[in-house]
Amino acid sequence: MEGLYGRKQIFVNQREITRDNVVDVIAAASTVHDENATQITYLYNFYRGQQDILGRKKVYHDEINNKVVENRANEIVTFKVGYLVGEEVQYISASNEKNVNANVIRLNDFMEYNSRATTDVELIEWCMIAGVGYEMVLPVADAAERAECPFELVVLDPREAFVIRSNDVAHKVLCGVTFAEYTAPDSVVVGKTRTARIYRVYTPTRVFTVDDGKVTAEEPNLIGRIPLVEYPANSARLGVFEPVVSLLNSINTIDSNRLDGIEQFIQSLLVLVNAELDDGENAQSIREKGMIILKSLGENRADVKIIAEELNQQQTQTLKDDLYNAVLTICSMPSRNSNDSGSNGIAIVYRDGWSAAETAAKASEAMYKKSDRELRKVMFSIINGATDMDIKLSDVVCKFTRRSYENIETKSQTLISMLNNDKIDPRYAYTACGLFVDPEEAYTAGMEYYNSTHKTAEDAASEEGDAGTQPTGEYIRGYYRQPADE
Fold first, then answer.
1. How many CB atoms neighbour CB 75 within 10 A?
2. First CA to last CA across the chain, in angstroms?
3. How far apart are CA 137 and CA 114, in angstroms?
4. How buried is 266 (Cβ within 10 angstroms: 0-12 exposed, 13-18 middle, 19+ buried)?
5. Phi, psi of 275 (to 5 degrees)
6. DSSP state of 297
7. Rounded to an integer, what distance in angstroms lies between the CA atom of residue 11 and that of residue 27?
8. What percent of the chain stands above pLDDT 70?
């Protein structure tokens, strides 16, 4: 497909979406969105295995036309999604205040109620395929369900949702739009039908319903924010395998041609030299029998030859490997074909491309966190209005738990070294070592345990009763660790 350069953003000249201009704005925006949707459909089908090679036609030997799909696009997306959100994203407290910690714990319970791990996988999968994803937060209408969780999360198909921005410097989001298509009677030809759309347009203050080019409903937006949030995969809104579609098509072509070459070699042409066939013999009967008896013509000796030129498989494999390595490099994918078994540890991380994969994942994290901040604004508006909680944006930090288990020994040694330094605050040591998903929670729990098993020198001396008696136990940074009971 031509023109795969990322999804276009939708800009309008308006500063506010109102009942008077919403129909014209939607009409203009839909033109750009439909172009994006066409590209997304192509990328989504490509990811599923419906790739260009399936439509190839051969001019010569069209009876031998193998169509092989080596679905590397699916491999790339699956790896990227699993690597980024294979471990659930968590909200952690940005403060050590008890009420803030309690609110964050309750917030995580709400997210668990909404199956956050599943919705994040679905959302990131769309981002990696299409270059953009959309998630929506809506208040729960049912009172019984609202007692469990006041909001619900919905991941939208990016072909049926978009946001419209102003064309000023800030590119402020003016509204979020979802739509559905249905069949309507044709207004010109009696008995014919056509495809019409019904749009839901969410602005910070109003919600409009535009049905087949007319505003059919308008209601206030009680949330006070646009509930639809856009998650771009990157600034260009490129799908993760989109830059290498041509390379992936070339790999499919090579695989298909290799099978064609093998099949054509097996079905090589049989040439008779200076020979005639028995009466009734023809090409079809020779094929069926698998053997022929020749008669020489005069003094010329009869002979049978096969026209065959086998494809050089070694050179073909070299070309394919080169294309595949280019795909891995461009997509920041680790290699699985290293023949060097002598290296280990950090050498493997850098040599086999894992460091590039980690760098790309960190960039994806940054894009996710920016959009997640907008999502939290909507969630907190609903939560604070429907519960007794008073949670603020500054109370919460979005934390990825990916690969927190790696290099545990190094991280542990870093923590111990920092804790043994009197000039470093233990709270900072817990945060800087990278060993814990929630450093604040780990620090609080650690100090509670420490205080329950250690006593100050003064407390220990007081319990001994005699002023000159030294307390027993191990002295650690002003505390005595009590010996275990024997």
1. 14
2. 76
3. 11
4. exposed
5. -145, 155
6. B
7. 12
8. 78
Residue 476: pLDDT band (50, 70, 90) is very low
Query: What confidence tens digit (pLDDT) does each residue in 260-287 have?
Result: 887 776 665 555 555 566 655 665 665 5
Cα torsion 13, 24, 136, 226: sign: positive
Strands 161-166 and 11-12, sheet pairing: parallel
7-11, 168-172, 186-190, 348-352, range with greatest mean pLDDT? 7-11
In angstroms, the CA 374 to CA 387 distance is 20
Which ranges in 9-62 belong to alpha helices (H)? Answer: 22-48
The dihedral sign for the CA sequence 184, 188, 190, 193 = negative
Element (H, E) at 450: helix 439-453
pLDDT digits (tens, 9 = 90+) for 212-233: 999 999 999 999 999 999 999 9
Select from 80, 12, 2, 5 the least CA-distant residue to 47: 80
148: burial class by Cβ within 10 Å (0-12, 13-18, 19+)?
exposed
* Nearest by Cα to 367 from 189, 228, 229, 208: 229
Q: Using alpha carbons, select from 385, 391, 432 the residue that is nearest to residue 412.
A: 432
Task: Give the tens place of pLDDT for each residue, 425-446.
Answer: 888 888 888 777 677 778 888 8
Q: Which residues contact 446 (CB under 8 A, 6 or more apart)?
A: 430
Using CA of residue 140, residue 145, residue 151, residue 153, what is the dihedral sign?
negative
Domain residue spans in the chain? Answer: 11-242, 244-340, 406-486
Contact 70, 255 (CB under 8 A): yes
Whole-number Cα distances in Å, 413 to 160, 445, 447, 479 = 51, 19, 19, 21
* Residue written as token pair 């086998």: 310
CA distances from residue 26 to 99, 111, 130, 215 in whole angstroms, order as listed: 44, 33, 22, 11
**Mapping DSSP to helix (H, G, I), strand (E, B) and coil, where does residue 202 land?**
strand
Output DSSP code: residue 242.
Answer: G
Look at strands 303-307 and 269-273 and give their pairing: antiparallel
Cβ-based neighbours of 423, under 8 Å, separated by 6 or more = none
* Tens digit of each residue's pLDDT (9 = 90 or more) over 295-335: 565 666 666 555 555 567 788 889 999 999 999 999 999 88
